[in-house]
Amino acid sequence: MRIGPYELAAPLALAPMAGVTDRPFRLLCRRLGAGLAASEMVTSDVRLWHTPKSRRRMDHAGEPEPRVVQIAGGEPAMMADAARRNVDLGAQIIDINMGCPAKKVCNRAAGSALLRDEALVADILGAVVRAVEVPVTLKMRTGWDAAHRNGARIARIAEDLGVQALAVHGRTRADHYQGAAEYATIREIKTSVRIPVFANGDIDSGAKARAVLEETGADAVMIGRAAQGRPWIFREIRHFLTTGGDFPQPARDEVRDIMLAHLEQLYAFYGEHAGVRVARKHLGWYRDAAMPAHQDKRHDTLSVTSAEALFREMRVAESSLVQLTLARAWLEAAVGEVPAAGGDEEPEPSAAPPTGGRELRRAKVA
User: Residues with catalytic annotation?
Assistant: First the structure.
């Protein structure tokens, strides 16, 4: 499928998620099969762009085309200005957020709160499309609540104003992330417009992706929470859509290589202090999503207890060296022997090694 001049390598997109889809994670998911990966939501208030968080969200160094930046706000002129500035910084597609259900976003008349005001939606979309020469896309929900599912009307407004693709989460704002996604409204939206539509919500396997595509008639799927701790889901879905068969689960060594390389990228991107902390939630997701498939039935209770203790230590580590050392030991205890990526050598620290006695004692666990 195409968005403007860009032909996507696969009909699969990583959904933008605040605090998750930073540059390291986007690069990882693109490498593992995603055809598109949008940035975390960037505020349209340029006065806030001087913060480290905003600067990192607008850092696209080394990303493959097309580079997608998602912007959020409720004032047409500010949204247009933010779109222009992001294009100047390298954005090749501007995505507009009208799907976020978070209170702090909706309370500012942004995100999915905009779905209640179709006139304002039109003003924002029109202003952004006129402001830039790159494709503009829209991420939305099916409506504000079950009594106000106006997604099809919003979609027609978007198409009429020049928006070139839609991503639709199969829930209303009132649903947040609760209950099951519904796809009837996505199908209604798809039949209402001629532009490409991504179906989003509860897609966690190749079989589910195919079923949703068949039910909705959508052109592609967008994956969000199912990619957390399982970035290889994109190649699994891509393989299933192409062949109808399941892609083999990643081998133990590949899980190790993916996870440890991801940690290194986080340290390099955020720096020592912040990188270790950001890595903690990813480690939790890897354990929840990836490890169950590799649990060795031969492990006794002692091995399981050891793995849990190592995991707890890893989640409170204060340095990259200690976190990496504990991660390797945890993988070995959880899924069996995990050799070092470069032989028998320990991983090199990304920044200064730990200096506290408590940290040094943790490093000896492996």
Answer: 100
